[in-house]
Amino acid sequence: MATPLFQVPLIAEGRLIGLILDILIFALVIYYTSGDKHIYIRRVAGLDAIEEAVGRAAEMGKPVVASYGLGGFTYWTLAGLAILSHVATLSARTGTRLIVPTGGSTESLIVRPVAEEIVKTAYTMEGVPDQYNPDDLPFLSGQQYAYVGGYVGILQRTRPASTIMTGSHWSDAMNIAETSSAVGAITITSGAYISNVAALACASDYILIGEEAPAAGAYLSDDPAQRASIRVQDIFKWIALGCIILGLVLSNMGINLVENLLST
Question: What one-character DSSP code corresponds to residue 212?
Fold first, then answer.
């Protein structure tokens, strides 16, 4: 069992390093969001797939169904909203009907007005405000699987050319992805948690894996907070990788420095 190097009063054993890392994360986010710092984020390949999917819908004269998730204002939902804005802009530009199923939880009631404004603004900015139809953003239900039933019904009735499902979708994702595939739509998804990814990869034509969706959202929105979040996560991945490698090397030498430090 690891032996802590030292104990700080009023802080539980094994929590000091976590506290220091939390403070460091907060400080780095503040640093990157302040001033005129521009954080470079590589364009995610999934954005090309999304643009191709909207283009296919325009050529076929069929609608695009896009959703940003069914959660509140979470990390994944913000990414989904940024991608929705991009899809709405492409749809308005190409004259493609865009259907955005909303609902799925009580928290979604707070997000829905934002989604409506995002889609409406996209059509206005493209000079076609008359093409915006609020009925194409139906509120299906505040319950997850009632929402799924409504979503599946939309897919079966409209037979869209493309389905773009990003954001905070959970166990409902497979029902939607499989139905989308069954009706012949190009299906692009992202997994909000890792246990969904393998199954969604089988049911989708393209999947944004892991943090590709938040990275795509940050790339599209150009929001300093989202870009800072991605940058700080990358920094801490390298820190974690360095600790693992250092710990393995020292452990093989019979030195438990890293293990003891993390137990502090």
Answer: H
Identify whether the C-beta of residue 207 lies closer than 8 Å to the C-beta of residue 189: yes
Q: What is the pLDDT of residue 14?
A: 67
pLDDT along the chain (264 residues), means of 10: 63 76 88 80 88 95 95 88 95 96 93 96 95 95 94 97 92 92 95 80 90 84 82 88 89 82 74
Q: Of how many residues is the chain composed?
A: 264
Instruction: Tell me the backbone φ, ψ of residue 240, rounded to 5 degrees.
Output: -65, -45
Residue 182: its pLDDT value, please? 95
Give the amino acid at 126: E
Q: Six-digit token pair at 128?
A: 């076609």
Adjacent-strand bridge partners of 139: 102
Q: Tell me, what's the pLDDT at 178?
A: 94
Taking the C-alpha atoms of residue 25 and residue 126, their distance in angstroms, rounded to an integer, is: 39
Q: Where are the domains of the chain?
A: 45-221, 225-264
According to CATH, the topology of domain 45-221 is: Rossmann fold (3.40.50)
Distance CA 176, CA 107 (A): 20
Q: Which residues pair with 102 in a beta bridge?
A: 139
Q: How far apart are CA 104 and CA 66, in angstroms?
A: 14
Q: What are phi and psi of 216, to 5 degrees?
A: -65, -40
> pTM of the prediction?
0.82
Helix (H/G/I), strand (E/B), else coil: 190: strand
Per the CB < 8 A criterion, the answer to whether 152 and 140 are in contact is no
What stretches of 89-204 adopt beta strand conformation (E)?
A: 98-99, 102-103, 139-141, 162-168, 186-190
